## 1
Amino acid sequence: MTKDCRARISIDYDKCVGSRICTAVAPNVFTLNENSQAAVVNAEGDTLETIKMAAEACPVSAITIEETTE
Amino acid sequence: MSPESVADPESYFGRLRDEDPVHWNEQRKMWIVTRYDDVVWACRQPQLFSSDKLGFNVKELPEKDRVRYEQKFSPIYKAYANWLSAVDNPLHDHIRLIVNQVWTPAQVEKRRASIRQLIQGLLDEIENKDDIDFIKDFTLPLPIKVILDFLGFPHEDWKEIKKHSDSWLFYHFGGGTDEVRWQSGMDGIEGLTRYVEPRVKERRANPTDDYISGLIKAEWKGDRLTDEEIIVHCANLLFSGHETTTNLLANGMHLLLSNRDQWDRLCANQSLIPTAVEEIIRMEGAIKSMLRYALEDVEMKGKKIHKGDLVLLVNAAANRDSAKYANPQQVDVGRRPNAHLGFGQGIHICLGAPLVRVEAHEAYSALTQRFPQMKLAADTFEYHAILRGRALKKLPVKLK
């Protein structure tokens, strides 16, 4: 992992239940959309480690993180 | 509940969904919400709809009895004050975010191999029998032993846990001031916490790498759980961790065997197990509805729900809403997508859902491989007359 690593974040809206856990773990990355489901507000708002922690904490595994150097 | 709606909840809730989706039930004195979009919306607004279960029970007491009940049945008050599914924020997030350090889908997944082994052991015990009660012989012992393993407690304690759980469960039936019900609830929750307490204290003194030791160490932003919170959480896991899974696995077996083409399809194609499990939860989940009360005046479908009103969110009816699903009354073990509401939605999404999924995948996988000839051994099946759960009394089956 290098400093240039970024996360490409995908949310599966068939799975997302609006638990809000990601918004607590990585509050500068995730917010709630108008359906009270997760949405990415700024993919670089928190560290990659924190974003991964949010994905792992999701109770329905709705968040996928793809590391990219782009 | 009428006998018809116990046997077939869809007969009542489905009619409401079609005719009056936000319905005031005068007898129960509560709103009944049945459409998919409305149930999802309400579940995701915890600031509008409280899950405070202690509040529901206290609301049913006449003002004059409230102090007396709080003193007489204080263990119930103490347990509910820390019970994850029964508290609102900020307390809910305090508990959930710490628990989340040791309970995630990935951590639950690590239990798969031992759950598989447990299932094979239980099926070995019944394989030479022709007729069994699928509940007594399989879906009862399995989840309770899984949760005992999870917590690091011995299997032989399962009957004791079951006895306390049944007493606690009885408290959730009926309503009002019935002191027998409150006494049963107190006996149950005291039994569960009395079982857990010395074991939590022991882990605090001699930590290992097990779940409770992890929970004691777990922290979120410098915040940790107290022993009292951990004891109630473990009592909650012992209770919630088996009761509903027992019912789900039995409901699923009944559903599949009542729709033989779907059972045969599953036996012929194991790759359908994950979608079959989701379809079972959609059609015959163990939780039919969730109770809330309004924290503010809210308008839904033109109806004015007043602050303090009870609101029953019927996920079982929402799961058969034709606005969401094609052919909602049809069982399709390959259905995809299937964003059912069987585990709830929002902040109170079932904590145990990942564990239930692993247990159900492994159970149906083993059953389809070992007993593809299984069939129902009765013509009629009785369900417990409970409003919020879906629970068969017995499930007689022929294994071969």
## 2
Amino acid sequence: MDFYYGLAQTVGIHTLLGLSAYIVLLTGQVTLAQAAFFAIGAYAAGMLTVLAGWHIVPALGASAMFGAATACAVGFPALRVKGLMLVVATLAFGEGVRLFFFNFDYQVAKGEIKVGPLGGEGFRQIRYFQEHGWSTGEVMLFVWVFVVLAMAALWWLDRSRYGAVLRAVGEDELAAQSVGVNLTAVKVSAMTVGGAVAGIGGGLYAHYTTHIEHANFNVLLATFAIAYPIVGGLKNVFGTLAAVIFVQAFLIEGLRFLGDWRNLLFGALIVAAMNLRPQGFLGGRRA
Amino acid sequence: MGAGVLELKGLSRHFGGIKAVDGLDLTVRQGEIVGLIGPNGSGKSTTVNVIAGLFPVTSGEVRFNNESLEGLPTHKRLQRGIARTFQNIRLFGQLSVWQNLWVAQNAPEDHARRGFIARWLGGQSGVRAEIAQLLEFSGLAHKQDELAANLAFGEQRRLELARALAAKPKLLLLDEPAAGMNSEEIGQLRDRILKLRAQGITILLIEHVMELVMGVTDRIAVLNFGQKIAEGRPAEIQADPLVRKAYLGGA
């Protein structure tokens, strides 16, 4: 049973990661910075529960704030460029953040041992759940409370006027500004919301794995973040969830019995999925 | 007629060595419909794009209600009261007709009347009546839930006009609104333009279709190679030898 709980946690956390890219993709921007916001959320929440002794819920709130603040700060310069230039700019930012954590030491003595991030060794012993005696099932439910809240919030945002404005900007920036839309405000705010969602996802990830290090937050993770909403389709938030289940539960776990052949089939199946459903699983606009 | 609403003073816009618009002076007064005509490539669309703030001026000035628009981005010019349509229709194709008008609810009055949260997140309440009115005006009420991309060509033109009106503009820049329309549709467009004038909206009309330009405008300015070669009443322009030469070649 623990295996399925663990899988459900992974699906939940990756759904948060995918949703953080979903809202930015609605505005037509392709960003590779989501893994960096996820990393910032992970380190922030871990440090707050382990070093400062915070409860997990306010720590996740702080993760969301750190993720959002960084995304907002990055958004202003980065969103001045478009298309491939934005991909390169956010990629550089993501790698910069990863290298920051590669060099980031902040250890504090806690009884016999020292805890906290230790550069390339990573940040071990983020044991909030274990120390407080949470069962795997409880942790899984806790993760999914945040997933459901994030999905509900984004669903509502999507159906508000703001959602229509995001999609309008994604379709035609020139027309959008000609009907009075402030492009900078719309793009930066979408990036900020995405940063908050990624921050929460990262905070949950840190406590679920108990050990994080810079290599967890590499370009591959950033690519997954945008792959989920693109494979799932941008019609609504459930596309992202469907794509995460397809990738994490079916391609990664379900095909484990294939051994080394899995990696080969993994790529082939993603390509097949994109060819069979170019609009994504749940249809909607082409990304 | 009051003071000039829109004043172009020595307006120039060059692209490298090409002088798309070169030293254009033009005044459009409150409540007027002014036509801007000229052969292809004479700088008409560039003029609209410069007024709307898509390109900066190379030299010269655009003034609106006695204020310079220098450096104002497009969305701020819209809030000052300048709305436009595009020569090649630019709707939000994957949004519904209704949503196209919803996104365009950016009139300056709305900023004062509705708070930030209500304006951006307030669901669909509060603007229903205004959108219904726009749908009625453009004869698209029965298509409100259709995706804009699925509309017929003439309907798309009507929707684009309605979308420009959603911001309650004082000045409307129409960039070839009759292109590709049949003569019945042109007649309906003429009626709509005259209705807008009756509401006090000033209009700068760029058009090739003489049937429309000659029928609705108070004055016409003619561009050729970025320069104004004539200005006057429709009848005067029709008789002008320079204009005939520009359009028909040196026959």
## 3
Amino acid sequence: MSALEVSTPVAGERVPVIATRGITKHFGSVQALRGVDLEVYGGEVLGLVGDNGAGKSTLVNILSGSFQPNSGSMFVDGKQVTFASSLEARRAGIETVYQDLSLAPDLSVWANIFLGREQTVKGPLRLVGWLDRKAMARDAEADLERTRIRIGSVKALAGRLSGGQRQAIAVGRAVAWGSKVLLMDEPTAALGVEQQAKVGELVRSVSDQGVPVLLISHNLPQVHALCDRVVVLFQGRVVANLRPAESSVDDIVSWITGASLAATTAAFGALSRGASHDGELSHDGELSHGSELSHGSELSHGSELSHGSELSHGSELSHGSDPGHDGD
Amino acid sequence: MAIKLPAALSPVGAVSPNAGPEGGPPPPRRSAVLRAVDRVGDFWIVGVLVVMVLAFGLKSPDHDLFTRASWLNTSDYAVEFLILAVGETFVIITGGIDLSVGAILGFTGMVSAAVMQSMLNGGDNSLLTTVVGFAVALLLGAVIGFANGYLITRLKLPPFIVTLGSLTAIGAAPALINGGNEIATLPSQITTIGSTEIANWIYVTFVIAAVVCVGMGFVLHRTRFGLRTYAIGSNNLGARRAGINVDTHLVRVYTISGVLGGLAGMMVTANFSVASPLAGTNDELNAIAAVVIGGASLFGGRGHMLGTVVGTFIIALLVTGLVLVGVSGSWQQVATGIIIVAAVAVDQVRLRLAER
């Protein structure tokens, strides 16, 4: 990780643990992300939802250092950072539970938990990277025990475990190592109802200790029940920043499908035509700071248009608006 | 470890070691056959070797297989394959393959012999000539292995294609050295290494091969490098996400394979007291066969150094054993082929049973 510069947060404003500004990513001609602004604050569980292809996993891969963005900036604790690899992101305290779990099926549970951060013995054998297998097995057992994940023996091969157990190990590994933020990409996809609830408890417990969790899930009732805030991605853009306390699951669905966006765009178009008559709108269609719509303007169903969300006709709401949640 | 969780949190995953995989009722008791399969584990191939030794030993006239001469023949024959198979084990566990090891053996053997011959012709028969010969072989092997790894990782070329190219190109090179003739003008130390027996039962070259097997076995099974080798073969993307520099690791693995190819070249030169442009021809196939018979998966992630050693001895025993029982050389190839397929088939069945 290289700290390029320190951002200058406005006095009194909370500094997000992790933030992005204008992140874009394309794969050939496919534009996966189109200027994503996102903040994750300490102690919150932030849901990131969207339809297939909305860009959720791409964003997670960028935050976790697996992909590098084509443009845009990323900040950890207010410092601009770039991650050239997953290792750099992990060193910055960002742990990820990937959709495919990223476990090595031919390695034991303890080896999976310590992979990339292996413990070596003390003394001259350390020079050749001699593993302290006993210590890692013992610590892995303790870590899984702390997270109340039981898989029998930590010496078992990951590939011999059930889908649920593998998922539990991936979650446990991330929880054990994540010091800054946990990114969870569909962490409950392979789990039964009871185990989904237990992962939910785990997520809550982590966030209660001040470590924010960015949860990506198609399980909207779970997202609605678990998250303090929900950000909706639509075609590579952040289109809504919702508070579950003020929004229903149906509201989230309507943002995911684009129905709310279409209605809002129409309303915004009418409003901006009026603003244009009053000379408030600049030539390029961007509303300036302090304009009436930019600062936490309440839209339908208690939702807010998020920072920098680009609307379909190109108008942008400015940065600096309220994140919509105080991270309690 | 960063996060402490309250003890009040209820468990995730299976509830107890006796519970079912999803925390349900305990699974039914495994049958005696499945429990036996579990116990035998990855080492069933050791039993195959023991059966072969007994079968060839009892079948051979006067039980010749159990003689010192027969052991020396078998172990001597195994030396080059042991060394090549050790490197191949690392490569195959990463999910790759190295077809060039036989060609590296032949090429490095010829080049180092040519260098040593040149020094000898200059009147230098000191230990330095031998040391330079070894250094040239190992260094040349390292360079070829590094080039293989570099092309595979940086140009994203399939290992099969890259090493097939190396095999083809390097395989032809020994014919260009010394007019394609053998080189027999070698330092006395080289011929001593190849002909000296320790306690009348073990050649020095075999001791060298054994040290390589044991040393690299520890590297594979006890060090960070070994663990990461398995991880890359088991889940390449997962290994990258875990922060492992997969490309650098793979380059190192192919370099090790190349270095061992160079060492095997020196051992063959020492064994025969001559460097031959034909040395190493098709050796890669025996090395790969030994690794696969030993239980490694060509898909990566699985393999064991003990299995590789046993696999090598099975191939070596087929050669000496079949000769002793009077079967012609052509049948040895047929037998080796059948054993490769049978070993992999049995291994697959065993794995399927173990997963039940």
